[in-house]
Amino acid sequence: MGIVWSRKRTILAAAILFIVVLGVSLFFALQKPVTIAVDGKIIKSGVFFTSTVDAVLEKEAIELGNHDRVQPSLNSKVKKSTRIVVTRAFPVKVIADGSSKEIITTPISIKEAIRLAGFELGEKDIVKTVPVPKTVPNQEIEVIRVTENEVKVEEPIPCGVERTSDNTLERGLTKTISAGKDGLTKNTVRITYHNGQEVKREVINSETLVEPKNRVIAMGTITAVSRGNQLLNFREARYMEASAYTYTGNRTATGRNPEVGMVAVDPQVIPMGSRMYIEGYGFARAADTGGSIKGNRLDIFLEDRSQCLNWGRRTVKVYLLD
To answer: Fold for domain 149-218?
Structure first.
């Protein structure tokens, strides 16, 4: 009897073990593997065939915000190897028309974010934001309103200049033959505004009302003249304003005592040391400078104060000699 009882117990234990193993196998066999992607993490799980996406997330203690997106939808039945993707929503600020609005959204297009914020995007409006195809957390989107206006504007057309040679005039001197006249045009101007501020003007059409007339100037060509029975060869002649000074006890800019024939000039106009002939004064050399002698001005040296007073200030023709 003992041997029989022992054999029965062994068979019973084997049967129980078989049932347990079978139950465990069935338990795992009836579960489906699923993958959850959330917050940059991948979670592996297994669920029974009757489970929904919502139940899987609850099982894994994954909480959802009001604007979070889940794919597949929460009430979808879980299939084998289902991949559940949770996309978190985040804040995005949209600025337009002097106001701003914050929306909470998952990644969407920039245009859709603007629409969700309650703003309409015009055809020519400019969107200022980071260069991304879809919204990102804490993104700021600014809509710049672009408007245009066309106006008619009359503007002068500057006259051109024509130059011609004159063999009766010294080189460096000019003579106006014809004063010329500006023309007049009517331009259609397109003005572009960004948020009400003008940013660009462009002429899109132009109509000439009055044709301009060019100014005609004669250019001297003579390079030699006779003065006091003496032939002067020069490289240039010009009209200059001349004043006079006398000895004050100071030396010239070249370190010499002033004397007749020395002239103070602007070195930017006439280089120091230049030889010249000044009508009404005679031969001279640029040997001095002066604080008030700028541009086409010069200061001639005379022996005494009375001569300077008699000279005064006058316009003279100056020949810069070769």
So the answer is: Resuscitation-promoting factor rpfb fold (2.20.230)
DSSP 66-89: TT-EEES-TTPBP-TTEEEEEE--
Domain residue ranges in the chain: 2-87, 90-144, 149-218, 223-321
Question: Is pTM beyond 0.90 here?
Answer: no
Q: How far apart are CA 191 and CA 45, in angstroms?
A: 63
Per-10-residue mean pLDDT, the chain, length 322? 58 56 43 78 70 85 90 86 90 96 96 96 95 95 97 95 95 94 97 97 96 96 90 95 87 84 94 94 92 93 92 95 90
Contact by Cβ (8 Å): 264, 291: no
Question: What does 245-263 look like in DSSP terms, one character per residue?
Answer: E---S---TTSSPP-TTEE
Q: d(Cα 270, Cα 264) in Å, to the nearest integer? A: 10
Residues 6+ apart with CB under 8 A from 221: 165, 166, 167, 169, 171
